[in-house]
Amino acid sequence: MENFEFVSPTHFVFGRGAEEQVGEKLAAAGAKRVLVHFGGGSAVASGLIDRVGASLDAAGIEHLELGGVRPNPEITLVREGVRLCKEANVDWVLAVGGGSVIDSAKAIANGACVEGDVWELFETKATDHDVLPIAVVLTIPAAGSEASKNTVISNDELGRKTGYANNAQRPKFAFMNPELTFTLPPFQTAAGLTDMFCHLLERFFDDLGAVPVTDNLNLSLMNTIRAEAPRVLADPDNYDARANIMWAGMLCHQGLAGVGRHEDWATHGLEHELSALNPAITHGAGLAVMFPAWMEYVHTENPARFAFYGQAVFGLTPTGDVEADALSAIDETRSFFASLGMPTTLAELDVEETDIPKMLPTLAQNKGIPFGTFKKLTLEDAEAIYKLAL
């Protein structure tokens, strides 16, 4: 096990009606003026924004709203949020939504506390500044952003999508009511399940080999996701299945499932270029295509690790041929994503071989070369993995 630092300041309010406690909890934490940040029309149409606003009103907290966050959130709206926060002297940012909304809120909370353009933080990765406190009402379990130190933002003008990590932007509160996820479309639910599972894969496969305490937590979460996925897709109103998925999604990306490891994150880097190329590509769908391709390309670095994963997660019986067992584990991973209704090829995402050269320069900018830890990858390796995914 490697040395590590782990920070987890989030206060979780979990269960039915959790969102009704927003005003009370934020008032007790000293909030006076809150920016309520959300996405499209569903949070408004469902009445959730009104309920959150009423909770803030009842607690005597002033608030203003900024909606319109898209999937793969973009820097232009972040800049608008920063402007509003500075002009109105906002002291908390409240995200109502899923990972895209939370990531946008995190970027706003950072930008409100710096002099220059908020995008500079994504270029310099500087963390030596204050961050407005952040709270979250989670409506889409997937990204785990409700407790993580990470945010990912797109810059359409530059053709970039890149991340920024800062423990100071971990949310102070996460209000998590599984009932708010009952109406999620099946595709969105499936993409979220895929994203969670891939957060675990990024941590399980690195250059360290076994770290038993972390590995066992990781494998338990993988098995929970696999068990709950068919239940929730067959019965979207199953409270227990939704609750297990919501809590697992947080644990998958809070950081605890990767302590003592180096982690890899090459595949997320490869996928981010897909959704920068076309923001309509859902992150989980892109990961469903890219992860098996990455696995095929790198598995020879440590086939026993893949074979062990196949046995622990998919119940595969060892054949005595470690290479064959590793490949079977990869096949099972692809089949699992397909069973959720996820794509398995880039062609299904309307990405062609001629698009690959367009993604490589920004991949180098965002990840550096080489990148990844399980196998150090070059741009030539990246090109080969994209081609495997076609």
Automatic annotation (TrEMBL):
The keyword Cell cycle does not apply. Keywords: Oxidoreductase. SUPFAM superfamilies: Dehydroquinate synthase-like (SSF56796). One of its GO terms (molecular function) is alcohol dehydrogenase (NADP+) activity. The keyword Oxidoreductase applies. GO terms for cellular component: cytosol. It holds the Pfam family Fe-ADH. Residues 9-178 form the Alcohol dehydrogenase iron-type/glycerol dehydrogenase GldA domain. Gene3D superfamilies: 3.40.50.1970, Dehydroquinate synthase-like - alpha domain. Residues 189-389 form the Fe-containing alcohol dehydrogenase-like C-terminal domain. InterPro entries: ADH_Fe/GldA, ADH_Fe_C, BDH-like. It comes from the Bacteria. This is Iron-containing alcohol dehydrogenase. It comes from Adlercreutzia rubneri.
